[in-house]
């Protein structure tokens, strides 16, 4: 067996070995990339070319070519070399302009950039290019302006976890003689009804649900969830302000037996922290409040109830 020359050897850094191992195990990666990654990993372990060819299922010539490409091109050897063909229709300046446009803010904040970029380039820069060509150029640099991932830049708040633990402990151990209420508002709930009744499931027949619906405007709701028994006290409101919130608290005060204390879990909404609300609470000592930390309204249990309501507002046609 011919001894490998130093120039034929494949040396991998820890980072490259990790990357090649990941590609070699990906079911969604291109077959050629997976095969070349496996060849390079085996070559780095000084496996002979003939044995690599048998393991990977290719010719010895392919193994040698992959080694040679890696020596001259590095990790780019996983991809095919650029092939000769007709000259590109759009030069590098157009490519860079498309990338700059795709990574900037769209003119309409509610719009998606992908279907608009071609028209924007034609109007603003006089570049005649199709939307599909724009998509291919962006795919070549792995830019996907149609995809959005939300994130929250929440600065560290002193005592955040201590306050969160306080609320969780409160849920688990409601003080004796106290009604614990989780209170919040849900505005802009869409009121919708289905155009046709749902056809219920039968023998060998799944339930059939019509996708069309009618819109009946929106409604705003204020609700208090009793943490102990799960009952919800709802109230439809016209405006979400301190006056509406205090009217709701007054109703709770009148309907709750006088011998019980009332403890509220609230977020930091303006109607919950206004001067009028604080003055009202000070004048009604049977009420006490625990506020959720900033950007942690999800700790308020009634928020989950309101979320379920907002996704279940379709009423069967004719049932309402």
Description of the structure:
This protein is of the alpha/beta class and 320 residues long. Helices cover 40% and strands 16% of the residues. The protein contains twelve helices and six strands. It has helices spanning 14-24, 31-44, 49-56, 60-73, 92-102, 117-125, 131-140, 160-172, 242-255, 270-273, 275-283, 301-310, and strands spanning 178-194, 213-226, 232-237, 261-266, 287-291, 314-315. Strands 1, 2, 3, 4, 5 and 6 form a six-stranded mixed beta sheet that branches. A hairpin with a 5-residue loop joins β2 and β3. The longest helix is centred in the first third of the chain and has 14 residues, at 31-44. The protein is elongated and about 90 Å long. The termini are far apart. The relative contact order is 0.09.
Short description:
With 320 residues, the chain is α/β, with parallel strands linked by helices. Helix content is 40%, strand content 16%.
Largest sheet: 6 strands, mixed
Rounded Rg? 32 Å
Which class best fits the helix and strand makeup? alpha/beta
| Low-pLDDT residue spans | 312-320
Note the main attributes of this structure.
6 strands, six-stranded mixed sheet, single chain, alpha/beta, disordered C terminus, 12 helices, 320 residues, 16% strand
Write the layout of secondary structure elements.
Elements: H1 14-24, H2 31-44, H3 49-56, H4 60-73, H5 92-102, H6 117-125, H7 131-140, H8 160-172, E1 178-194, E2 213-226, E3 232-237, H9 242-255, E4 261-266, H10 270-273, H11 275-283, E5 287-291, H12 301-310, E6 314-315
Parallel strand pairs: 1-4, 1-6, 4-5
Antiparallel strand pairs: 1-2, 2-3
């Amino acid at each position: 067996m011919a001894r490998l020359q130093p120039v034929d050897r494949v040396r991998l850094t820890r980072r490259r070995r990790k990357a090649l191992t990941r590609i070699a195990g990906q079911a969604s990666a291109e077959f050629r990339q997976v095969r070349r990654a496996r060849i390079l990993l085996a070559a780095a372990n000084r496996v002979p070319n003939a044995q690599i060819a048998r393991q990977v299922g290719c010719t010895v010539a392919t193994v040698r070519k992959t080694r040679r490409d890696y020596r001259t091109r590095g990790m780019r050897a996983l991809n095919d070399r650029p092939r000769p063909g007709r000259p590109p229709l759009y030069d590098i300046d157009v490519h860079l302009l498309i990338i700059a446009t795709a990574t900037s803010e769209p003119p309409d904040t509610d719009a998606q950039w992908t279907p608009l970029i071609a028209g924007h380039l034609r109007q603003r820069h006089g570049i005649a290019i199709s939307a599909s060509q724009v998509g291919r150029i962006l795919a070549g640099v792995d830019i996907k302006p149609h995809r959005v991932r939300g994130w929250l830049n929440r600065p560290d708040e002193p005592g955040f976890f201590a306050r969160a633990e306080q609320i969780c402990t409160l849920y688990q151990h409601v003080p004796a003689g106290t009604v614990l209420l989780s209170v919040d508002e849900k505005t802009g709930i869409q009121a919708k009804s289905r155009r046709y009744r749902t056809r219920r499931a039968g023998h060998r027949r799944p339930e059939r649900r019509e996708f069309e619906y009618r819109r009946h405007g929106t409604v705003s709701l204020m609700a208090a969830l009793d943490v102990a028994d799960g009952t919800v006290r709802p109230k439809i409101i016209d405006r979400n302000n301190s006056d509406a919130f205090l009217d709701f608290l007054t109703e709770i005060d009148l309907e709750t037996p006088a011998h019980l204390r009332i403890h509220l879990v609230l977020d930091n909404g303006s109607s919950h922290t206004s001067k009028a609300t604080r003055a009202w609470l000070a004048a009604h000592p049977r009420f006490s409040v625990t506020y959720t930390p900033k950007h942690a309204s999800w700790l308020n249990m009634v928020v989950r109830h309101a979320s379920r309501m907002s996704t279940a507002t379709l009423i069967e046609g004719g049932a309402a």
